[in-house]
Amino acid sequence: MQAELLNAASGLVLGDENANSLAPAKQLGRGDDRDLTRILYGLAVLHRQLAHDKAGSGCGNIREDSLRRTDDGHLILVCDLSRPTTCENTARNDADSRLYLNVGQPPRQVDDLVALGVVAAEFLVPPNKRPEVKDAGQAYRKELAGCISTSILRRRSNRVCRKLVKSLLLCGADAEQTTADFLGDHVGLVRLTDRSELKPAGWIDVARSFSKSTMAGLGVAFLLLISLLWLWSGEETKSRSLSDKLDTASFDKQSLKDDNEQLVAENQRLKNRPNTQNSPQPPDPKKFPIDDLLQDKRYKLFAEDANLRGDKKFQAIRVKEQLTNEEVDYADSVLTDLVEASEVWWDIVLDKATKDEVTLRIEGQSNDDVKKALKVWYGQAAENERRTLVLRDTHVPNGYVGYDFWLTIRDTQNDKDSVIKAKANSSQKLDFDKKSPARAFITWKAGQPIPIWLESGSYMNMIGNNQITKKATGALALPLFAIGEFRNGDFMLKFDVTPLPGPPIESLGFAPGKPRILHPEPDKDGGVPIHLEDELN
């Protein structure tokens, strides 16, 4: 069964002896949404085989160290069936009881799903943000699921991964849930066949779960069917044409030999002919114009970034008129790594990670170039530097037009307040006094919070009333401050920050589109990539 599983599902490894060379996973990152789907498929195959062999229902041995990473960065689940199950031998007041639904009983399939969800969720949620493990159980898992943000500000694959993990955490509501059913419910248009193969769902399956699918999925399936029929008809026509030619062709060896001798003689004559034309030679087909790189959205975004400006090889490529394949590949690799590093950076910012957590997450990156870029940006944040905070946008309720406002921003390092005076105008915006422009200065470095509060008053009521009281926290509080919208009801403040450590703000949620200078490559699995976001419940 082990060999069958390893061939059928690349996301599953049976036995610790097969995983000794795999590094433990430290966090979830880019591409792990697909790896989690493969792991679920592997579990579905394993569970079906266990039921067929009457060897139980679930594995019951998924723990914190069960998720590993291969050398190429893929996520792998290690299941050891040779040891007594942790699920069956765990007491309800043990910390491990948070991993399973049927604690102290033989494991079911849902126990493996819940355990996978808890382990993955604890990679997403820093230790200081997790709920306290008391009696564990479903209450802990619900609170843990509430700690997982699926904000639209996060990159698409990260949101997909987080939604899938939350679904795993909460699937314990159905004690009889099977892994195959979970795949069908939460990874739409996919079914496990009787032969333990993952395939697109049939029309009947789609109709049964129509409320959980999307019209877009049906449209894509229909277009794919039409495309396959058209390709098949074209290939059939080509096949008939080739068959006719083979049936009627005459393979006269002597004739072919004579033709070849004539071609050799003609080729020699052309070589000996003097070159009387001075027409320009066509460009090398292996060269690409530099404009393709300069117009790349990723290059435009990171052109002034410290990582790119410090890359001498990239800067040498940037000033050329044409690029070779090798130079194109290098430029694409550098820009791709910067996009990935920026995604990790903004995840750290949004998670309000502490300084220790930031260091751990940077060091945990499997891509050395991504890790290097993150260290450069974090080095900028660690510098004790004077920063300028400028109000970019404001809004107050209509009833406060004409009121005076005082905005206070605290420099926690110097224990000093900057106060900005303003008056609300008829457009429900704040107008600032020339003597008190809409900016403040603070000295900031990584780890310092940034508190602000907005007070209002009128000529009849000079007592200040706090309208907004907020604080940006985490090791990277300044980038969080820059992307934040400080709001309390209809009161709102937005700021620009200079100099801002890290990648440009525009890289938050950045989608580069298809690179112009590269040829698209097929999916590594030989098929069309599966986009899961719209299919998750």
Protein described:
With about 525 residues, the protein is of the alpha+beta class. The chain has helices at about 1-10, 30-50, 110-125, 135-145, 155-170, 180-185, 205-210, 215-250, 255-270, 290-295, 295-300, 305-310, 310-320, 325-350, 355-365, 370-380, 475-485; strands spanning about 10-15, 25, 65-70, 75-80, 190, 200, 290, 320-325, 385-395, 405-410, 415-425, 430, 440-445, 450-455, 465-470, 485-490, 490-500. α14 (about 325-350) packs across α16.
CATH architecture of the domain at 2-187: Orthogonal Bundle
Number of helices: 17
Secondary structure: number of strands: 17
Give the CA-based shape: globular
Please estimate the helix content.
40-55%
Low-confidence stretches: 1-10, 200-214, 242-253, 514-537
Instruction: Write out the strand line-up for the largest beta sheet, numbering strands in chain order.
Output: 12-11-10-14-15
What fraction strand?
15-25%
Described by strand count, sense and barrel closure, the largest sheet is: 5 strands, antiparallel
Supply the CATH class of the domain at 2-187: Mainly Alpha
Mean pLDDT score:
75
Q: Distance N terminus to C terminus? A: 32 Å
Q: Supply Rg.
A: 31 Å
CATH topology of the domain at 2-187: Transferase(Phosphotransferase), domain 1
Pairing-aware structural class of the strands and helices? alpha+beta
Biased composition (Basic and acidic residues): 518-537
Region (Disordered): 267-290, 517-537
